[in-house]
Amino acid sequence: METLIKIIAQEDILTILPLLGKLNTKTPKNILTERVLEMSTLQNYECVGLYIDNQLAGIAGLWYSTRHYIGKSAEPDHVIIDESLRGKGIGKQFFSWIDQHVQTKGCEAIELNAYVSNPQSHKFYYNEGYNIYGFHFLKVLRDDKNFY
Q: 3-127: what CATH class?
């Protein structure tokens, strides 16, 4: 099994849609496509791809910002690894690569959000040295008030 981890080029960014769709089951595909294109071209974002035998098997978006309380930081977002590969140490390898990558960009910290409905990820993040420091709140401003 050959593993490659790399930043996905902007021209290939839509290759993440099948994996991203597994997390975003409520978001219509056309809206998801528009959002991914906007993120990858207009915002401080890049996406890491995990390839197994040349097939995209994992993704993690990375958002960059400087925060007054911690300095320059990266936020992994929409992290997903194909279910068939979980529990094999690939997530650890993926996050080790991410740690090194964001450090080369001058990051002093990594922050992330994990859904409360995903306790398996919580255990993984604890084992990777993450701690819980707060809650993530969300207020939908659209008229329909729906999350998508």
A: alpha beta
